[in-house]
Amino acid sequence: LDNYTTSWSVHQRHLRAFVLFNVHDILFGSFSFIGKNCDHMLTDESKSIVLLARHFAHTMH
Predict the structure, then answer these.
(1) Does residue 39 belong to any structural domain of this protein?
(2) What's the rounded Cα separation, in Å, for the pair 27 and 46?
(3) Total number of domains constituting the chain
(4) Which of 35, 42, 57, 58 could staple 27 via S-S, CB 3.0–4.6 A?
(5) Is residue 51 part of a domain?
(6) How many Å separate Cα 19 from the centre of its chain?
(7) Is residue 6 part of a domain?
(8) What is the pTM of this model?
């Protein structure tokens, strides 16, 4: 049982790292692209959502 529990917690840790990495990738890949190239296309609401998402990505580190 201990072996199973340990491997599960390790699996969860890897999963969390994987998810965080992908969220980070999405935020700083796509959003920085959006921010640089499509500022004029974004509404104020979209901009604040992007900024908020970036803020959360920073605090998650």
Answers:
(1) yes
(2) 13
(3) 1
(4) 57
(5) yes
(6) 7
(7) no
(8) 0.29
